[in-house]
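Re: the 132-residue chain
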Amino acid sequence: MNWLDDIKWDAQGLVPVIAQEVGSNDVLMFAFMNREALEQTALRGEAVYFSRSRNRLWHKGEESGHIQKVHELRLDCDNDVVLLKVTQLGHEPDEPGIACHTGRHSCFFQLYKDGAWQSVDPVLKDPAHIYK
């Protein structure tokens, strides 16, 4: 049996994926993978996701250069969520990598406080200077 057969794919053939930074344990982002994306991630050692909006594979960093080097692939107890332990590449040395398309370290930069969502993490690089 192929290791990919152990995954409980949803009706669209996708599995949710969480990218977590090695060392800091920051949750960087949430995305989806199809079978091909997960297989390519394992082969390349770099994160490849499935973009639902573009309906195609998306090698993280293909435009921005902010590649995710994958150290571990983990599967949850129900076999329906994948956790990637990654190093976020593509920013200045000794500074946090940029995982979010908004130019922030993590996609989870909004904190619920006092009845509203507040942006609490800085933009490390203007997205206009990241994407073509």
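The mean pLDDT is 93.
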